[in-house]
């Protein structure tokens, strides 16, 4: 009974997009692994998962201070233990005092614990050079994806030609396409400019918007900066242009800024949309509607499992805000351990506190290693015939373009696979390296890519890059 | 721009239901509190929140063993600390070994960590007297509400007369009505029998179903056992009848069993739908489609803030299961600390382990106190003229009926309030006690109720009951 109905319902548009989404979630790997292991003996001893932005799974160690505070919050008897530094205890006491019954096992307010929202607002103010942030505009969430889906749910409506259109970059992070298909919104693709370091081009935005106006009602513009899967960091000028465009076209801006600490390239800098918006003056800062998203899963902490995150909304109409509060109330509250962790991310040890030195050492080590790996990745890939790789300016991925011989494309078609999926399956099978085919993110017709994280430890990453190099040469030869 | 669209979209059906939903979430209390505090000086010193099933917020202490393991998982350096018992360390090591990079900061598989799903299956098998449970049928979730919404999303489809109808009890837990409105499903009300201890009556199910067949396609039957907000525990006979009915009418059964340890009344016992289904023989156990839900938020642990939970699906078609996997992949994974906590709930200390005695002592203390408070609540309420209270057989709420004088009903209407909302607002204003009006859960036309948790500590609960008693007398007098 349910089978037919369900398949009928989700079968149409959602299935394919959700399939793509599953490509970037951790579910895929065991599946591929099993496929791999079912075959003959393989010429590798380990599958290296470079398919998902999961820092701890790749061996990155948690930040000591964060985990100390979380242990203290989980088991407050440890507050009497002299082994824990005073600043960790002070943070834990403050968080516990803000919890019902002083326990992280109590529900919080659906919008999140108030003092944590205050800390988030202070963090944003500091980040943005003093531009005010109101804790009432902060909504804590179950990772950034939860908040992104919630906002889309709030904004998407209409039927037929009135259906809400949402502009997303291609390549994109598949959460967006999956959520849009699920909500029945129209996905409006704008293409990033691969030849210009995956930059965003306002002419292309205009083209995409005006084409979409023929068949839907475009209302939302999504930006990922720094970019996933493309690793570009937007210039201040580009952000200004985007904001001007959003204002002119009455678009709601969704700024996915979860990689805000992940900027590596010289001359690049993270500019928050909020800051640029306010620096453009009241004509913009009082009118453009916006939501910005952040998470505990990326940056230097990589705490994906805790599902912590927040969004800040700007210029949201009070009536819409009331609907938003109701929407978030249905799920009761975001996980409180994730809220506690977020509090530490936005309020880390300060220079006069005992944990500062260790914290800074750990944070810097992670970010420097990522910068080094970003450089290495671009450098090595660009020595491989048939691979072209833009600089990894930020985030934690590279999205190189691969040239596939026509015979390989034909072979893939014969097997019923998209060509870059065929490439990635072969790579997994022959070298034990798990990447995600570019088709999972979208790419210009006739081009092929893959996404690889730069998260493996440096020595392992070098091995991965070397193996991909050899595979590419060998694959090209085989199909030439 | 977004304002109009959003309000237009959600304004129709969702708004009211979401409003009701917010009544049971913690968001409401501050709102009421503020309302209260804005007025004149109040004749009470503290607002007692008996509106939400939030055990820790009401002073219940966490289970020591659970929090020790969570602290160890959060900060594994503590595994070297001799203060922690060996069984706690062993559990923490096992959980960490199952995590990517041995960190609870890594993503898990979207369906949940495999060894935890195995532990859940073993727990179900033990609970159900050996009836097999397959870990592949277990899906870990962000609290039970997440799993409930996911399954509804999978099952609801169609337009017009083909729209999926979902049968829910009245009174109901407002998550259901909110989710149905959000998904565009038809809510089919069946009324619980207040005169018979809020029992479920098959004749009433038939009536509701056949009336609904006129205008939609009924496909799902939701049961909450033990009941929220009504506190009844279903008999084995009743469960058999429900299963027979579901089979005959080709309904998907959703069994919300989050209060499975909360059974207090003599002669009452928790029977899982799964167990009864399998005991009815293969004719039923091979055909009836079902999902059962559990959570870390209720029972003796009351760990709401961790948002842990699971569902077990039975007889789900493999194609539908594939869709389910895709659906849960979009949000990446349930919070890993909540998964770890769930593992402890389903795999608590065993008699030969060092933490067993303390664990059992703590568990028993919570459950005995709840049983005592359940008894006390019924007893005291039934001495109050104008209040009629069924036995609180299970769960953690009472849903007594209140007789309101016609003048009070008129006054409420004059103020634009439903009568039991007026009653609850006055109670809050005069006595500082926060309850939820029965209209938030649904009730038979012309009857009035409120929901109160039995969670306040016994001495405080006595005060609450005494104050409600006085208020009821005084309120009745005022409006007579």
From TrEMBL, chains A, B:
GO process terms (BP): L-alanine catabolic process
Aminotransferase class I/classII large domain sequence ranges: 69-468
Claim: Transferase is one of the keywords in the record: yes
GO molecular-function terms, A-Z: L-alanine:2-oxoglutarate aminotransferase activity; pyridoxal phosphate binding
Names of the cofactor(s): pyridoxal 5'-phosphate
One Gene Ontology cellular component annotation held by this UniProt entry: cytoplasm
EC primary class: transferase
Catalytic activity: L-alanine + 2-oxoglutarate = pyruvate + L-glutamate
InterPro entries reported in the protein's UniProt record: ALAT1/2-like, Aminotransferase_I/II_large, PyrdxlP-dep_Trfase, PyrdxlP-dep_Trfase_major, PyrdxlP-dep_Trfase_small
EC number: 2.6.1.2
Matching Pfam families: Aminotran_1_2
Metabolic or biological pathway: Amino-acid degradation; L-alanine degradation via transaminase pathway; pyruvate from L-alanine: step 1/1
Membership in a protein family: Belongs to the class-I pyridoxal-phosphate-dependent aminotransferase family. Alanine aminotransferase subfamily.
Subunit structure: Homodimer.
Functional summary from the UniProt entry: Catalyzes the reversible transamination between alanine and 2-oxoglutarate to form pyruvate and glutamate.
Protein name according to UniProt: alanine transaminase
